[in-house]
Write a structure and sequence with these properties.
Helix content is 57%, strand content 10%. The chain is α+β, with helices and mostly antiparallel strands and 799 residues long. The structure holds zinc ion. The site of zinc ion (ZN) has 8 residues, from strand 6 and helix 17.
Amino acid sequence: MSMHKPLTDSVTPEKKRFLKQLCASLVFQKATPSSAPKAYEYLSYKFQHNPTYRAWLTSICPPKMLRTLRRYKGSDEIPVCPETPKGTSIRLYRAPSPTEQQAKIAADNVAEQWSMFLAERNIPTMLATPTLCVVFVPEGMVFDVDELWSTFLREDLLSLGSLCRSLLPLLNLSKLSARGFSAPEILLVSGGMRTFMCAWFLRTYDLVKERLTNRQHKLGSEDLSEKEREKLQALQDKEIEKYNTHFQRRWKALRKEVDKHQDKLNKQQNKIDKLKKPSGKKYEKLLKELRRLQQQEPFPSSAWSRLNTLAQEEQFNPFCVIDKELRANTAQYKEIVQTSKKFHRKAADQLNHPRGDIFASMLVELLKAANTPDEACLQTIPSMFSTQPFAPPPRKAGDSPKQICFVCGAYMEKDEPSFELRRMIFTSPEQRLQGSPNPKKPKCCISCVTYAYVCGAKPTEDTTIIKIIPKNQQTQHSEGDTQQIGRILINKELNIQSGPYLLLGCKEWLSAKGGFKPVSASVGALAYAYYRIARDVHPAALEHMQFFLVERGQEIPLSNTRLFWLYALLQASGLSIEQQGKLSLPVSQIIRVLLADEYIESQYIAAKHTTLPTSFPMKMEAFWHSLSIIFQKEKDMSTQAENKLSEIELIAGMTGLLIPFINLLKRKLSDKGKKEKEIHREMAKLIENCNDPFLWNYNFASHKEIVFKSAKLFKNSDSYFIYEQTKRLLSNLPQGIDTAEREEVNKEGASLQINFDDVLASYNMYLSDNLNRQQRKELTNKLKLSLYSRFPSVLSRYK
Ligand SMILES: [Zn+2]
């Protein structure tokens, strides 16, 4: 492994904030011709070593600045900052975050997307916490939160593009509900959402049609026997008949609804017409009621008569109705048809269309939504951010729960639209409410339902949710940082990012009774999260990022050291968690011992099961080295890390003391013409006895002709770390060994002479004094595992 260079972290959060302000003000003011190049140079200089900040900069800066950035070769001179940023910082309060996990994820996602939206408009976020965000507004810019918020909803959050980036991959990736969705009702909050749902329905429709057409073709083939043909024909007729009947029934019910509604409208209109003069309080009241009725039409009136005629003409055959409607209105359906092609079969199958009359209801909903005018779709959703602090929601005494949002607790006015919790939006929409014996679907407000709907990170059986936060900034993060890391993961595998959350789809499936089950369900979410991040994330990201597993309302931090070590073991051993539909026991065992911070034991397990035995020690050597650096960094923070580090160094040093003798034995036995099997047995015997140096002595003595008083440890690519540690152990011995005298450097490299007396002295010094029996046993056991890991070929005998 080529180790990455540590990144120079010279940009402090304060400096970064300053640079963001400078950048925003320069871009917004379109900077003066002379100051702009200097400013770009200055920023380039500041950002040259930091890929994360560079990524942020490239996400907001105009093409001209990007070119300068790319051309920038670095400079010995520190460029001078050309001017100070012009603008003001504005505090925006964030609406209280819901506590329900899924709603919280959804709200965080919206908040992050909002920050990105502002950044694109030259308004960088300086600070973002769960309750507050501070933005920098360049001088001369008009900043109106409510105005920006409605643009954000329309053009960003609820747009078709945004849904295709977040929700679509989720539907294509993972089954949201084991039983599928039933009787869907289209949530019309924006034109984008309407198109998205219609496209989803249309895709399902296309697949059903395709299946029926294929069957029809099969009926025409000559390979079928008469009996088979009859059977298949009956099946075909039955299915088509079912769709026709249901569609007819559904349509007639709709017609009744439309007639009833028309009746109501007429009556209301009559009441108004009967009034003597069209003004006054009574008139206003009646008119208001009429408007309300008009808004509640069961089907868009502009398209009703056309479609009603069509349905009757086609004798309620849903396939003819839909096909004709699509052909007659190509422009209107163009976007829906195009979008429907992006849905995979998995997404389409999530709609449980074969059950009951779901297919028919779905098609009616499709016709209804596709004919709803754009302006009727866009609902107002109150801004999540405000320059004024949010007051607690006003609650009247004795409110029925109907008027309180179950998710965020906001009070809903009677005429405000409210929604039932649905499986599409929340995994468990059925809740047992206070004082109610049966679980019910509680109501929630339009904000909660919309945010939850658009969020791509929804917990499902085969997905794991991870939260990513830049290190040392756990309470504040900025747009772009987590996006950058998310992109690394997304590029590698199909995962979904929603704000700071990342949804990992489980790729590995195990054969189980009655089908398959995801590995994540078998090893547990925590183990799987470790596995996937270790496998997919470049270790450089671990330096900057902190990962959390989001599960059952908790955020469990993942240890970066364990992640790194697991990465190393997976790389060096070539093991993966699933093999031919079976769980790889070594990998799950490795993760289990790592969760207990048993680094050496996990290495032993990897060596034992490694598929690349010869290169294992060499690769591990590089990782040992990096691991010690990580621990070194953590050392200042925790005594636990310090203990781990000294333990790892001690085991490495002791390993280095013993390896030369094992190698010596191996060479001598080989010279004597012993068989490989026998040599391995003798080596294993020696390793097994490493808890007692006198037993070693005895072991050697049994091979009378071998001189074992001293041996040489060579420094090379698979021993440079242990070599240094062995040297350190020797020089710290009370005997005062001068390691320079023992070391020999020639053109083949360095080597260290080790006498058997050194081994005895080291056991005395490091593995006996100040240790109780149990501690000694644990350490020598680790030493044994470490020695075995150095000789995987010996281990393979004992697999
Ligand atoms: Zn709510």
